[in-house]
């Protein structure tokens, strides 16, 4: 008796020692995210934020609004993302099911021959079913019943895994919102580029008319022996150069239209627009608000934040693998060697209840590696979050500065165009009165064309900056 007590005591001590060894978790270096941002952009304390304006109110051109609305339904990449969100939602259901009991119902039938030289076979040989009859060598078996298994979530490992799946689902939703923001901005930028190209093409065609008229004058001057054949050839070359520029603009129009068609999810076709409205476009004043509002408005920042929260929970899930886990299994049913005895209860009734408490003791390399990987991914998520916030802040600063400088640039270029337009008429009058040579007329025409093209380019860049600032602030997804 004393020896049995000693053995029992040793068994208890050994079990406690093994459980303690199983609960030993390696210490890892952790990192906490820095959520601090500058207090303002360039000292401004205005909290008005244009990102809160819905895109339908921000883009008032009905043709542009129709394109955006169509893209939100038909864009293939966006629809692919929606299916990825559905996959994330299904992952939540799968994780939720893991911490609930698994119950199955089934039955079966078969036959078994047991060797007489086994303990079961020897026992069957001396067991009488009825007086004078022993257990047959080949024994059939039939059963029906319910079977259940359940891992008791002691350390909240399974519940935490579900929480991580929920956060990843929320992150995928924010990723979809950020994709919508970029899609809206890309369509708007392409649309304004298309309007600019239409206006540039119109300027080139009008300039061709002016050059052809000038060429006619030069030919008349040559016939009057006032200029040489060189002047005629130089003007003809300028006409050909401008025609080539026209073909280049026409090709860019086709490509820009088809870029929009691709985003809208349709085959190449004419993009409905009003090119004359470009001349009336004036970039609206935009309010940047405060940098802290980026954390609320930018979907990519919220996505990174959700991913970071999920990564932290994944570390807890990986840590729980070091602790003992409790598994319960149970079954209840009916079993008989002959189907006619199957419902003879309680003789045919079977039932079981088993509990297992197990934990890793030796060779924990696999779960240690998983734990270290989860911790490394959490640190990655911290850096990704901080990088996303920093990138968002820099984007806003760059675009606000870009809008201010482009406004000044447009004013300067507009003055340049007016001055060159006046010099065009002056140079032609001077040439016809023999007070200027043909090169002055040619260079003036070239300069005015380039300046008008640059003016339209600057206006397009202003509208693109307006769109990009709206996107940088986090607008467009709501």
Structure, described:
With 478 residues, this protein is α+β, with helices and mostly antiparallel strands. It has two domains: 28-99 and 153-322 and 365-472, Outer membrane efflux proteins (OEP); 102-152 and 325-358, Single Sheet (Outer membrane efflux proteins (OEP)). Helix content is 63%, strand content 11%. It has eleven helices and six strands. It has a four-stranded antiparallel beta sheet, with no helix packed on it. The protein has a two-stranded antiparallel ribbon with strand order 2-3. Strand 2 (128-130) and strand 3 (133-134) form a beta hairpin. Helix 6 runs antiparallel to helix 7, helix 6 (157-223) runs antiparallel to helix 9 (299-320) and helix 10 (365-432) packs antiparallel against helix 11. It is elongated and about 140 Å long. The model has no long low-confidence stretch (mean pLDDT 85).
By CATH's scheme, which homologous superfamily of the largest domain applies?
Outer membrane efflux proteins (OEP)
Number of domains: 2
> CATH topology of the largest domain, what is it called?
Outer membrane efflux proteins (OEP)
Structural class based on helices, strands and sheet pairing: alpha+beta
Low-confidence stretches: none
Specify the helix fraction band. Answer: 55-70%
Strand order of the largest sheet: 1-4-5-6
User: How many beta-strand elements?
Assistant: 6
Beginning-to-end CA distance, first to last residue: 78 Å
CATH level 1 name of the largest domain: Mainly Alpha
Q: Total helix count?
A: 11
Q: Judging by the overall fold, what is the CATH architecture of the largest domain?
A: Up-down Bundle
What is the overall silhouette? Answer: elongated
Profile the largest sheet.
4 strands, antiparallel
InterPro entries: MdtP/NodT-like (IPR010131), OMP_efflux (IPR003423)
Membrane topology: Lipid-anchor
Family: Belongs to the outer membrane factor (OMF) (TC 1.B.17) family.
Keywords: Coiled coil, Lipoprotein, Membrane, Palmitate, Signal, Transmembrane, Transmembrane beta strand
């Amino acid at each position: 008796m004393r020896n049995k007590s000693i053995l029992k005591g040793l068994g208890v001590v050994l079990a406690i020692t093994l459980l303690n060894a199983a609960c030993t978790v390696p210490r890892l270096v952790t990192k906490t995210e820095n959520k601090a941002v500058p207090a303002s952009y360039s000292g401004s304390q205005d909290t008005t934020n244009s990102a809160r304006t819905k895109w339908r109110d921000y883009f008032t051109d009905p043709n542009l609004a129709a394109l955006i609305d169509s893209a939100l339904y038909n864009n293939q990449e966006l629809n692919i993302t929606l299916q990825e969100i559905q996959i994330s939602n299904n992952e939540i259901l799968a994780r939720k099911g893991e911490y609930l009991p698994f119950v199955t119902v089934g039955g079966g039938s078969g036959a078994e021959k047991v060797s007489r030289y086994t303990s079961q076979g020897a026992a069957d040989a001396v067991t009488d079913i009825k007086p004078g009859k022993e257990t047959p060598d080949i024994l059939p078996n039939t059963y029906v019943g319910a079977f259940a298994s359940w891992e008791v979530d002691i350390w909240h490992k399974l519940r935490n895994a579900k929480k991580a799946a929920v956060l990843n689902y929320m992150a995928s939703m924010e990723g979809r919102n950020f994709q919508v923001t970029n899609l809206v901005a890309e369509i708007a930028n392409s649309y304004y580029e298309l309007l600019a190209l239409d206006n540039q093409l119109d300027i080139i065609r009008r300039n061709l008319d002016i050059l052809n008229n000038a060429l006619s004058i030069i030919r008349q001057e040559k016939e009057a022996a006032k200029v040489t054949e060189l002047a005629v050839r130089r003007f003809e070359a300028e006409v050909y150069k401008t025609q080539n520029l026209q073909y280049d603009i026409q090709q860019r129009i086709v490509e820009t239209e088809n870029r929009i068609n691709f985003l809208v999810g349709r085959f190449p076709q004419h993009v409905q627009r009003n090119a004359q409205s470009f001349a009336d476009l004036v970039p609206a004043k935009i309010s940047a608000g405060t940098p802290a509002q980026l954390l609320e408005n930018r979907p990519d920042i919220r996505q990174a934040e959700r991913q970071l929260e999920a990564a932290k929970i994944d570390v807890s899930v990986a840590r729980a693998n070091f602790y003992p886990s409790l598994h319960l299994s149970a079954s209840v049913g009916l079993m008989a060697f002959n189907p006619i005895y199957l419902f003879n209860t309680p003789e045919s009734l079977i039932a079981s209840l088993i509990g297992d408490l197990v934990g890793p003791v030796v060779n924990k390399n696999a779960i240690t590696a998983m734990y270290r990987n989860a911790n490394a991914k959490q640190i990655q998520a911290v850096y990704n979050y901080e990088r996303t916030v920093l990138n968002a802040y820099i984007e806003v600063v760059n675009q606000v500065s870009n809008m201010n400088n482009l406004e000044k640039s447009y004013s300067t270029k507009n003055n340049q165009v007016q001055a060159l337009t006046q010099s065009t008429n002056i140079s032609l009058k001077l040439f016809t009165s023999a007070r200027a040579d043909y090169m002055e007329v040619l260079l003036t025409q070239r300069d005015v064309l380039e300046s008008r093209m640059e003016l339209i380019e600057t206006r397009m860049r202003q509208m693109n900056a307006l769109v990009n600032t709206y996107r940088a602030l986090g607008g467009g997804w709501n």
